[in-house]
Design brief:
Strand content: 5-15%
Strand order of the largest sheet: 1-3-2
Shape: elongated
Helix content: 55-70%
Order of helices and strands: EHHEEHHH
Structural class: mainly alpha
CATH topology of the largest domain: Multidrug-efflux Transporter Regulator, Chain: A, Domain 2
Distance between the termini: 43 Å
Radius of gyration: 17 Å
Number of helices: 5
Number of domains: 2
Number of strands: 3
CATH class of the largest domain: Mainly Alpha
């Protein structure tokens, strides 16, 4: 699901059992408050909580955060769209078609912007 080419700039995930929210934020190039927000939006993202509600992410959580990041930041999905993809509710052809429509609309809007600048 996650294209390795999209996250080449991200550091490799160390072989540890648990990661703090700060470590995950650094590994995935997002802020800690974004991770806390994504926990509310994506049911699959459930880090362990220990004393004082401290979050401890496992390796599969870090991989999931990278998938979410790629869907939202690299592929341009909304949170609802990314949630659908992670739940498996959307077929690949629908995704590709939607991406093509978005690219076409973006191109047309850029053309209009160029005309307005002149």
């Amino acid at each position: 699901m996650l294209d390795q080419g999209t996250n080449q700039e991200l550091p490799s995930i160390p072989s540890k059992r648990y990661f703090t929210i700060g470590e995950v934020a650094d590994l995935c190039a997002v802020k800690p408050h974004v991770l806390r927000y994504w926990e509310q939006e994506f049911d699959q993202l459930k880090p362990l909580k220990r004393r004082g509600n401290r979050r401890y992410y496992q390796r599969h959580d870090v991989i999931l955060v990278r998938q979410i990041r790629a869907l939202l930041y690299d592929q341009g999905y909304t949170i609802g769209g990314a949630r659908q993809i992670l739940n498996g509710d959307t077929s690949h052809s629908d995704i590709t078609r939607s991406q093509q429509i978005i690219k076409q609309l973006r191109s047309e809007l850029e053309d209009i912007l160029d005309v307005l600048k002149v």
